[in-house]
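Researcher: For the annotation table, I need structure tokens for Phospholipid-transporting ATPase. Please keep the output clean. Sequence:
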Amino acid sequence: MYSLERLPSSKERRQKQRTVVPSFNADEELSLLLKSYKGNKIRTSKYSLLSFLPKNLFEQLHRAANVYFIFLTALNFVPVVKAFQPEIAVIPIILVLAGTAVKDIWEDYHRYTSDRSINRLPCHVYSSKQQAYIEQHWQDVRVGDFVCLSSNEIIPADMLLLYSSDQRGVCYIETANLDGETTLKQRQVVSDLPLQGAESPLESFHSRIECENPNNDLSRFRGYVEHPSGLRVGLHNNNLLLRSCTVRNTETVVGIVVYAGHETKAMMNNSGPRYKRSQLESHLNTVVLWCVLLLFIMCLTAAIGHGLWLQNLRDPVFKVDTETSPALAGFYVFWTMIIVLQVLIPISLYVSIEVVKLGQVYFIHNDLALYHQQLDSRVQCRALNITEDLGQIQYLFSDKTGTLTENKMVFRRCSIYGVEYPHEENARRLEVYEADRSEEGSGRSGTPQSGRSRSLSCRHSSVSPHTLTAEEDEEEKLTNHSQPSARAFCSRVAKEVLPDPELVRKLNWFLSPALALSDGSSGAPSSLELTYITDFFLALAICNSVVVSSASRPPHVVCEEQTPLKSLEEIKTMFQRLSFSPFSALSILSPPPIKASPHSLAHRMFAPSNSTTDESESSLEGTLGTSGLSPKPDLSSRAMEGNSAQTAGREVQDDDGARQDAEDLTREEDCKSEANEELLYEAESPDEAALVHAAQAYCCTLRGRSAESLTVDLPGIGSLSVPLLHILPFDSDRKKMSVVVRHPLTGQVVVYTKGADSAIMDLTGAPTGAAGAQEICTHIREQTQNHLDSYAREGLRTLCIAKKVLEEEEYQVWLKGQLRAESSIESREELLTESALRLESSLTLLGSTGIVDRLQEEVPETIEALQKAGIKVWVLTGDKKETAVNIAYACKLLGPNDQLLTASCGSKDACAALLLELQREVDRSGVPAAGSPERCGSGGGAGFILVINGRTLDWALQDDLKEDFLLLSCSCKALLCCRSSPLQKSQVVRLVRDQLAVMTLAVGDGANDVSMIQVADVGIGISGQEGMQAVMSSDFAISRFKHLRKLLLVHGHWCYARLANMILYFIYKNVMFVNLLFWYQFFCGFSGSVMTNAWVLILFNLLFTSVPPLLCGILDRHTAAHTLMQRPQLYSASKVSVPRMFWVTVLDAFYQSLVCFFVPYCACAGSSVSVLSFGSPINASALLIILLHQVIESPTLTWIHALVWLLSAASYFGFVLLLGLFCVTCSPPTNPLGAETLQMSEPPFYIICALTTVTALIPRLLFRALFNTLHPSPAVLKSAQTDREDSGNYWRKRQRWNQSRPKNRLPVCADNPGLEPCSDTVS
């Protein structure tokens, strides 16, 4: 049954590939092999009841802070070095460990409940004993089991699709749980399988599956099925149903499990939340090391001092340990001081930072300004620990399509056969639609003020940015059954394409038999041109992966082929019209048809005719005349002669041919209207949807799709079935997509290809044969290239359309290589790419398209603000140079006075020379360097923009040229990388990040931006029209590019300033309080004694002064949001440098500690006050100084701040009073009973505290007042500017009012003696 002799050993098999057979097989070795694979039970929880305590403690010991605390706690149990009661020293570490453990067990419990609910989900698994499907839990599914699923059920494991109730063997799945995409994906049953239905006996399945080992690549699956006969059938990603996906629009599917549980691709991609270390956190580590050095110096000073004190001590009046040597005693004191001064190391700061970041994330997440109502999408913070990095960005790398633009495509114009069709009526429709939407948008209360319409082109109008988003509200009511993504790709403005009159006129010659073709001299289109036009729109309709559905039928139901609009005799008559000699030129471009073609009646159009060579030559001349090699005839003169048909919607002429033409157009328009009403196209990209709707506008309608065929309506013919042989999907390396079909009329194998012009134009060429045919192809290529350049200058997205006709023998040779590549496990992708490249060669260029992709709202304002903030904006796109430059102009990245530097080379040596020459040109100009203060303050000013294409970028990124490239790029105002691949994008980001050591941010919306997003310090994904891959790989996710402005300039500024100031404040209060204990050592022989009880010492930083910094770290607003938005320069001008301010903070803390200690010391000098009584005013003054210091430094003072500060002070005084009233022996050897109550009942206590507090804070207060005078805050400057503007406006209004008054003046009298006397007499 199974050929075991061909199986490798178990160890070798596990290393290279996986073998899967049915679980009910009788072979013992294979059964053991299946059992060795992991089951389907998942467990994401980390702990159990028995393992929680040891495992959690072990994990917490990996944190250096916890190890430090535990070490100090254990050290305090050593009698010779202990500083206070060991029981008290245990309290901090117990609280920290217990709090962390509670948080961990709470999170793990939620994971456990989620795992349990998932593992207990039901599914139907085939049982060989009962010969039927039985219900089992997901956790009981094993590799090799057959699983039966119905529509809307979730797939329990990675399964190979063996059967589908769809007659075409197709299954539709929704992958939203994996990648966030709601568009339906099509999966195909493995070919040549014996299963004929869901109830087929599965015991007859004896095939063996060989596939790759489990991996996390969602887009790749390699393997083959080997049947008992030895036949191998290749497996690919379209045969695999992934765990967590949902079956849609398919009644029943059956699959065999190949990966289960944690070996499924979904689980292997579940890596948990992203973790990145922020730049501020790196600076904090340096600060902590300085604190460690300070602690070491202070402890070493105390140890040396104690040794010298003991050595010089003579006849002590108190008990002293004389048996221990001074050196050893100093060693003991060193460790005692480590315990006493432990709070100098701000270990609790790490915990406080995490709490503050959670608060910051909460406010960012709930900012209504970052909410997009149409998409119901808000900002997502996927990386919780780098919020402050948003305030330090220096370089921003952006994609273009979908990031700066809408990525909602509308067909604008096209070029076919070298003839350009501008679709001017369609352009005017878009302008009218834009104006209407602008008027509606201006009346909306929720429309942003700056959200006015913008054009992508500097010279041509486009569509309002609000066009598609606004119309979604209308379509939502009409198409509730459709998916959101389908609604976006099939928007009303994209559907309603108005045909070009000239193109309609040419198609009318094809439709109406009453109109005869001409040889080119009369203005009628040649048959060759009509062939190009038909093939062009047929390629638009079928060269895609669009899923067709409607309200009445789901996507998996293919509509039956309808009765053609014309009878067979009419079609024959129509094609006989096309047997003119001009069509003989096609014989050079297309090979002969298959002899056994079932559609031989169409050979006259799509196959060579029997015309003579002389006829061919004359036809070529006519074709050249029509294609534009000769002057184009005047359309108006042809209309006067009655030879041209009227376009749709115009009046019909009286002649019979025009009347017949109008009737044909009416029938075609009825067909088109029915299609528009019924069909819904679900496309994976908006480009595909726009092109399919454009083809539909010309009655070339895609009506259905299956794995073997496509149902297409052709103009003048009706519904035809196009056999689909192969689909070569789009990838970023080839930059094109192809479909291999058998032509429905000729039976020939035809390859239709669409892709970027850089990928298609190089593959097109003139065929060998007559010189006239080569001249035609050369002319078409030249004209199409001119049109492509024109489209790019207008900001349109361009695509080229081409085809290739294969001989049957040529197709069979290619097919063998393709099947061999599909069945290969090793190097499958490389073999498939090679096979596609072999097929996509020697193409015949049909034409090109230009698609409008509108700029998002407020993109120019956002980029201008970012540049004023000192952030360099670079655009990395795969589009043409002209398109990228046009977009740069439209979004104000490129100003009118900026100079373009173009880097386009054909070799590495030329690239090196060009980079040096461009650098010399920049140096000679004398323009300020990009990123300089004068440039940032002026908003950028004039400068250089470097434009580089992908080929040149490859050479520039090599090791010997990357330094020159980086130097030139940094000298320019911005960089535009055109035709760049995803790999090149990530290489540019990595080069800038590593070589310049700057903070980088990358923003994109598609899968091709994932590598760039992951390489950057901060990655931002835009939830646009290309799925959620970018969002799922990002640190932050937004819905519009304009949200970057507030996210960086406001929230980024706030987050960084808050955390930086909180870190400095933590260091200040720790150093200040620790120095109080250190100064006391000079008066106690450096013995490690303290002037306060242990409870206050432990709780001072843990409780009494811990909450105010957290509050300020979350709520402080150093500058108002509207000021930061209006003055972007504040983003980089007001940054706090933590390393530089560290020593200023330490010196200030030293001064305040000196005042706080020695003022009470001087007041108590010579008195008999006890140690605790001496320490009472010191502790109280320290608390007041620390709290009031924060009041002075805090830019925000609200009732919440006041309440927290009052509660902190009240908690301290309440605690020490209760301790003094009720604690008798809680802090031996000292006795705090009555000490605090006695001190607080005497007036000197309050006098000392007030004097100490004022003296300590006067320098800080004077410094802050002087600093604010010399460097006023933005709020003060804004207020003064507003006052000046208001004053100026007042005087201007008063002057205008005085000028508008009449010239006659009041007479002088006793009530107004200051007025001039009146010349008239007053009676």
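Researcher: And a one-line annotation?
Model: The first strand starts at residue 17 and ends at 20.
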